[in-house]
Amino acid sequence: MLKIFLVGVNGMERPQSINRSPERKKLAEMIANIYDDMIKKSERMADYLPLKKYPYSRDNFLSFLVLREMDLSKVQMALQEEGLAALETGEAHVIKSIEKILNNLGVYPPPPAALQCPDYTRAKEIMKTRAEAVFGTIQPPGIMVTLDSSLIHEPEIMEQLLLHGMDIARINCAHDSPPIWEKLIDEVRTAERKLTSIGKYGNRTCKIYMDLAGPKIRIGKIQNETLPLKLSVPRDAYGNAAGFIQGYISTRAENTMNDENGSDSATFILAVSAEDSFDQLKVGDELTFNDIRGRKRGMKVIDKRDSSCIKVQLDKTAYIDETTILQNEKITMSVRSLLSKPETIEVKKGDKLRLYLDENRLGHAGDEHTIPGVPVTLPKAFKNVRIGDRVFIDDGKVYGIVSHVTNQWIDLNIAAPSLKAKRIKEGNGFNLPDSLPSLNAASPTKKDLSDLSFIVKYADIVGLSFVHSPKDLSDLRDALERLAAPHLAVVAKIETKDAIHNLARIILEGLNFEGFGVMIARGDLAVEVGFENLAYAQEEILSICRAAHVPVIWATQVLDRLLKKGVPSRAEITDAIMANRAQCVMLNKGPYIIEALKVLSKLLHFDSNEDGKRTKIVKEFTAQYGIFHSLF
């Protein structure tokens, strides 16, 4: 074999060209055939999918899909032997990547005449442009924060969210109502104006993202019960009272209830009826009563607000109900209006649970004669349920197998949890991975279409929940056009098995929007595909979206423990760093939202301020202790 060498650095000889071996010729021929087949099929499909917007994304995406349907195992092994890249590594620039591999094997195919083929640089520019069409001009990946209705009364927290990296504010239309949504959006804009006026926010604008509720199947109303109210005083290690609690007694209060989030250290409110006003009471007076266990208790008046409200202190735990009488020599008052709550329904392995297909029927606990039952909010979604199908409740925390089906109810044999019973509540969601609920529960729903009139007025991005097919997106596009809002960016939330199987068609439909993205909604998705398969499904969605230059939102349980407990787990830190591959990352609500936002911003934008900073820090942590120095 003839070899031509050049003298290289330090006198090393380097081959300028090498005649191809039979193995390389065979590999080149195999890849050339794959390339030709891919181009022909992609061109044929492109003819059937005319697209005014983003034809380069369509063409690259079709090439990627053709490649994915081929058995490439032998070719990939041969490429590894030659030290060349795998055919599927360049999802965002498939045709150009394969052309480069062929060039390295000495083959120079003519470029396809009917397909647009972005290279690496162009593909990167396209993704940047497409991400900006959805999320705006932000430092990628952007951070989306789910707003809680309590933020209406906490402007300081809203300001902190904006200062520490919230690029997009998310409102979930499955909760609250338009007046609450409008107040939340007003708070975002008010906080922006304040921060801008003092020079802390620049010219930025936080995008508003609103999720349509979609055809989510949930547990309906459960009948209420009125239970005695426990006023709990702290105890020491020996079970003795070790402190006190404070609360309000008021003739104007609507309900008697515990109020752990109350202001001014108050943890309970007692609504009472009294014949006399509180004018005659003074600070230091004591009100005595017998709690429902017959134990004598006393509350000391520590403050007077007005003639109808006093603040009291209790130093022993007490149980009260609407028979409880508070009194002293000056006044007598009776407790009223205990806040009723839905009955407690708990199940575990071996129990039965009945699902009522009448959403107006109230759920109830069970006894020795009846099994517990709950209504479902979308009965038509259960039309295809059969014996043996799996049913998951509350993101898989409760799992049952269908044992009996009628036109009025469905019975489940509970298979999990195994040890400790789990309470099921109003609003808990269902997943029916075996029962094809999408055939009878399309998205968007009537509620979604009603909410859309609000969304187009206030939001920049709309999320379509429980997308099952491209028709769901085309229906949404028609609705947006009727509302004169075709410019609104749209995000398809991928959270069912149907959505994954239809993802290519969903994306091709999504390319018709001005701005289009995909959310990997890992909560419902994990239940649908199985927790053990979530990572694989997530990776496949990322690859498919990269091939179509579609920006992705990485969502659900990001830094979840940190949000709820204030301390992150090791695994969720790794998960958050892996989210860097998406164009946006979503945080849910939680009491430690500011802390979680700070950590996430640091993890995602690790090397944003200084080139090479990330590499430098990583090398410091992983430097090896002089291994080469020890050899010489």
TrEMBL record:
Cofactor(s) listed: K(+)
Quick one: which pathway? Carbohydrate degradation; glycolysis; pyruvate from D-glyceraldehyde 3-phosphate: step 5/5
Q: What is its EC number?
A: 2.7.1.40
| InterPro entries given in the database record | Pyr_Knase, Pyrv/PenolPyrv_kinase-like_dom, Pyrv_kinase-like_dom_sf, Pyrv_Knase-like_insert_dom_sf, Pyrv_Knase_AS, Pyrv_Knase_brl, Pyrv_Knase_insert_dom_sf
Q: Which Pfam families match?
A: PK
Class in the EC hierarchy, top level: transferase
Q: Which PROSITE patterns match?
A: PYRUVATE_KINASE (PS00110)
Which molecular-function annotations from GO does this UniProt entry contain?
A: kinase activity
Family, similarity comment: Belongs to the pyruvate kinase family.
PANTHER family in the cross-refs: PYRUVATE KINASE
The protein's name in its UniProt record: Pyruvate kinase
What organism does this protein naturally occur in?
A: Bacillus songklensis
The organism that produces this protein has a lineage beginning with: Bacteria, Bacillati, Bacillota, Bacilli, Bacillales
